[in-house]
Predict the structure.
Amino acid sequence: MLAPMPQGATSASVGPDIIATYLRLLQEAPVRIAHATAAVDTARLLRRTADEPWSANDILAHLRAAADVRDRFIVAMSSGDRRRLRYVSPRSELRKTNYVELAFSENLAAFRAQREMLVERLALLPADGWSRGSLIRDRPETVASYVGYLTEHETVHCDQIEATLR
């Protein structure tokens, strides 16, 4: 699992290796999910158990909501125009959507499309753009720190989906 910001790195020291790692991890999440769920029947993708109360579809819906929120923050921070952003909980965001009710394939297609747009946007961001930031919950955050949170969060949940379907 990748830490939100690699040890010793600061938002001012986000170099090409860290950026490449983050972009790779962002691209890998939908691919990992697709591989883990290929040829898995719909009933299994929706199964909840006492051991795992979230189905694979629930996890993917949660990832989409978290990506919705964090993508908006990343875009706002990368513009360099926003000094303070109001925190939005990904779980609150999920309750405002119909993601849990959607078919797994529809959720995955939307997640992939959203992710492609984010990666394209970030790939065009100059290296110093990764240190642009805002205050969120009175904490200084940067594009790099939020991408780090996003990749760490998704890595955990990709592991969870893979484990759930084993």
User: Anything to note?
Assistant: The domain at 12-165 is CATH 1.20.120.450 (Four Helix Bundle (Hemerythrin (Met), subunit A)). DSSP finds six helices and three strands in the chain. The longest helix spans residues 56-79.
